[in-house]
Design brief:
Bound molecules: zinc ion
Helix content: 25-40%
Order of helices and strands: EEEEHEHHEHEEEEEHEEHHHEE
Low-confidence stretches: none
Protein name: MBL fold metallo-hydrolase
Strand order of the largest sheet: 1-2-3-4-5-6-7
Oligomer: single chain
Mean pLDDT: 94
Shape: elongated
InterPro entries: Metallo-B-lactamas, RibonucZ/Hydroxyglut_hydro, Sec-metab_biosynth-thioest, WH-like_DNA-bd_sf
Radius of gyration: 20 Å
CATH topology of the largest domain: Metallo-beta-lactamase, Chain A
Structural class: alpha/beta
Number of strands: 15
Distance between the termini: 49 Å
Organism: Alicyclobacillus acidoterrestris (strain ATCC 49025 / DSM 3922 / CIP 106132 / NCIMB 13137 / GD3B)
CATH architecture of the largest domain: 4-Layer Sandwich
Strand content: 25-35%
CATH superfamily of the largest domain: Ribonuclease Z/Hydroxyacylglutathione hydrolase-like
CATH class of the largest domain: Alpha Beta
Pfam families: Lactamase_B
Number of helices: 8
Length: about 290
Amino acid sequence: MTGNLHTETLCEHVLRVELPTHTLEPLASTNVYVIHQKDAAIVVDCGGADGADIEQLADCLRQLGIQRVTGYIATHYHADHTGGIPALQARFPGPVYVHPLDHAGAAKAMHCSPNDLLAPPDTLSLGHLDIRVEHKPGHTHGHLHLFIRQHRLLLVGDHMAGSGTVWIGPPDGHMNDYYQALEHIEKSQAILALPGHGPVIPSPQAASRQLRLHRLAREREIYNWLANGKKTADQLVDLIYAHRNLGNAKHVAKRTIQAHLARLVELGEVDCQALAPDFQMMYFIRKSQEGNYT
Ligand SMILES: [Zn+2]
């Protein structure tokens, strides 16, 4: 612990700090990863713009002997990952790297100009450490994975969660991209996945495979409900989560279902049409595809 912040030393060069954020319940924090070597650091994500929390985070850096931040990098633009960057940057100046596809969103979340943000290089170096920057869209179009080669640690942003769930929803989220990102984790050499929220994930290959199979099973479930007759996304949410109280997660459950529906439409399995009387989008199995979904 540092002050009220929970911290965890993952190896001699990487610290995980749980920063309180407004994020999806039941989560209440976002991970900040401080990659450090001697007096320099690279900071990955920095959610939460509360001044007192950022001051405690700055104290964590000082206690590690860090005098300068050579770069900030965001796994993606969402405010619970970028909101605190400007406040920490005021204490430790440094360039901010965000994938260009996420620049507009990050500028809004950080109250800055897109011109203040840089496209990340393929590799960020810090002393003897190499951090490979991998563009892996899915949760957002500009989502990044970061691989610390020497320690085989893979930072996966919001593509995996140590607790709670991952959501993928349009317009930012793309389910097929997400499957590819998960396959990439399955094939990686990582010994630990470092998620945007919750504790680190051992056996990332098995965990990402399980996540992908879970999503594919959900997609099959959606297809089967549509085989029983056309439905709206809201009706599918009510059917699929009939026995669960989703609380404030209902809108993201709906968006994840919409991302599955968008993939089924892309695959040519499902079609959609805004139908009377209320012109809500109805989804239905394409006639020529009936019984073909595998
Ligand atoms: Zn996110």
